[in-house]
User: Which sequence fits this backbone?
């Protein structure tokens, strides 16, 4: 766990990194914590870009998940559910270098972060979804 942010790394999947805030200990500031972490990742990548361009895309969605331990010999903490799938769609529909959040996350962080509406985007398997790009702290 990243205690200063109360964020739990779940796993890496290829070049993707999955993390969750608000688990295993519930946290009322989970959305702000994960958006802050995304801003820090974005700044880290921009500072090290140089002549190589990394098109990092960050996607965040807030909601309920199922969490548990998987494995028999080697245990791993994991999460499942529609919230996980929607977060993955936020990442897939993000713009290179941007932090793309769902309307659900925007509702939780709009008073703490500057966000630009992207409008409604057609999302595979989900239909039209309202999205926002996080620009920074207020």
Assistant:
């Amino acid at each position: 766990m990243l205690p200063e942010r109360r964020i739990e790394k779940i796993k890496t999947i290829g070049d993707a990194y999955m993390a969750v805030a608000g688990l295993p200990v519930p946290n009322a500031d989970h959305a702000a914590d994960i958006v802050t972490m995304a801003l820090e990742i974005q700044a880290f990548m921009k500072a090290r870009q140089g002549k190589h361009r990394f098109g990092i895309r960050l996607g965040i969605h807030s909601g309920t998940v199922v969490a548990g331990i998987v494995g028999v010999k080697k245990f791993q903490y994991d999460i499942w559910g529609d919230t996980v799938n929607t977060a993955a769609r936020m990442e897939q529909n993000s713009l290179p270098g941007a932090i793309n959040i769902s309307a659900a996350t925007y509702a939780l962080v709009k008073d703490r972060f500057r966000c630009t509406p992207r409008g409604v985007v057609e999302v595979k398997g989900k239909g039209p979804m309202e999205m926002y790009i996080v620009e920074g702290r207020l």
Remarks:
- Residues 30-47 form the longest helix (18 residues).
